[in-house]
Design brief:
The protein has 378 residues and is an alpha/beta fold. The protein has one domain: Amidase signature (AS) domain (Amidase signature (AS) enzymes). The protein contains twelve helices and eleven strands. An eleven-stranded mixed beta sheet has the order 1-3-2-4-6-5-10-11-9-7-8, sandwiched between helices. Helix 2 packs parallel to helix 3, helix 7 packs across helix 8 and helix 7 packs across helix 9. The protein is globular and about 55 Å long. GO terms for molecular function: catalytic activity.
Length: 378
């Protein structure tokens, strides 16, 4: 059970001994194949150039320690992979690490690297971050380059960083996004206003989120965010159609894991009418989030509605799709969203507190997370 598919030490031209980072295997690193942890792509040729985010990291002095494992083809929430192995959940080895960026979250949580890059199409950074007890950010859609990232085309997917500390996550964002304002992300956020979104989640997790906001001394108000359920279902329709378009041809290879084969075949049934309806929901939900953010600076809610299930339960067929009920909607809308780990009374695992901001205001999201981090450390 490894967080890495391959390990190496790649440095920039100045050969600096900078902070270490792992790169999800759906992101190109020159000289290494991008297999998306799939047997069907195991013989893929080596990438001829770095993805833009990889090159930016190297230029900024980061040291790449390897390719991070992942849920096959980035199309799953459990992180279980019978081809490349299933990464360990640092919080509880008996539980799923979350998907699809399972190896990235595991590597950070285990302390193997300072940070990692993942991709988030339906919660695939924030979900594993919450499962593994680390921080994970999905930037505003389109803000971070996807050149050299699979799949090539997506209206949902975002490259985002994992870290154990906000200062490191902000450093990683500063490296991969030339427009990111680190000073703004580190400013005093005590005056920023928080909207606590009513969410269907376990009571202990909702209480942990409320308590963290209270302990941080942030001005908060309760907010109802309509169309979350509709946005969840619409997000599923879009990811199904786009993943089938990108990887459906691999079904005929006979080399996909059983779960991927079944899910891709099901995705093929997404109709044009389904997509048209999903786009209507995208417009409605995006407008609803924008309206909610007129009254406050960020929205706060649980990342996951419950703690991650066990590997045994997942392998026995327990459904995990509801894991993404509170994260997938913000892929559909494109707003920046971050998961931050918080302690839950009476539980051995930390849960995820999700912070959602206005489009382009990723720095506000990070500033609030850093403020909460400092408050909870006292």
């Amino acid at each position: 059970m490894s967080a890495f598919i391959s390990e190496f030490d790649l440095r920039g031209h100045d050969d600096t001994d900078g902070p270490s980072i792992a790169i999800k295997d759906s992101i190109d690193i020159a000289g290494y194949p991008t297999t998306a942890a799939s047997r069907a792509l195991a013989d893929a040729p080596a990438a001829t150039e770095h993805a833009e985010v990889v090159q930016r990291l190297l230029d900024a002095g980061w040291r790449i320690n390897g390719k991070a494992n992942m849920h096959e083809l980035a199309f799953g929430m459990t992180g279980i992979n019978d081809f490349t192995g299933t990464p360990i959940n640092p919080q509880d080895a008996a539980r799923i690490p979350g998907g699809s960026s399972s190896g990235s979250a595991s590597a950070v949580g285990l302390g193997l690297v300072d940070a990692a890059l993942g991709t988030d199409t339906g919660g695939s950074v924030r979900g594993p971050a919450a499962c593994c007890g680390v921080i994970g950010l999905k930037p505003t859609f389109g803000r971070v380059s996807r050149r050299g990232v699979a799949p090539v085309e997506s209206t949902l997917d975002c490259v985002g960083p994992f870290a154990r500390h906000m200062r490191v996550l902000i450093d990683a964002m500063t490296a991969i996004d030339p427009s990111f304002d680190a000073y703004s992300a580190r400013r005093n956020a005590s005056a920023l206003r928080v909207g606590i979104v009513a969410a269907v989640a376990e009571e202990s997790i909702r209480n942990a989120v409320d308590d963290a906001v209270h302990r941080a001394g942030l001005a908060a108000r309760n907010i109802e965010l309509n169309s979350m359920d509709d946005a969840f279902r619409a997000g599923l329709a879009v990811i199904n159609a786009e993943t089938w378009h990108a990887f459906g041809h691999l079904v005929e290879t006979g080399k996909l894991g059983a779960d991927l084969d079944a899910r891709l075949r099901g995705a093929a049934n997404t109709t044009a009418a389904d997509l048209a309806a999903a786009e209507d929901v995208r417009r409605i939900f995006t407008a609803a989030v924008d309206r909610a953010l007129e009254a406050v600076d960020v929205l706060v809610l649980p990342t996951l509605p419950a703690f991650p299930i066990t590997l045994e339960a997942a392998r026995a067929g327990a459904s995990v799709i509801a894991m993404s009920s509170l994260i997938r909607p913000f892929n559909l809308s494109g707003h920046p969203a971050l998961s931050f780990p918080v302690r839950v009374e009476g539980a051995s695992l930390k849960a995820g507190l999700q912070i959602v901001g206005r489009k382009g205001a990723d720095e506000n999201v990070c500033a609030v997370a850093a403020h909460i981090e400092a408050a909870l450390a006292q």
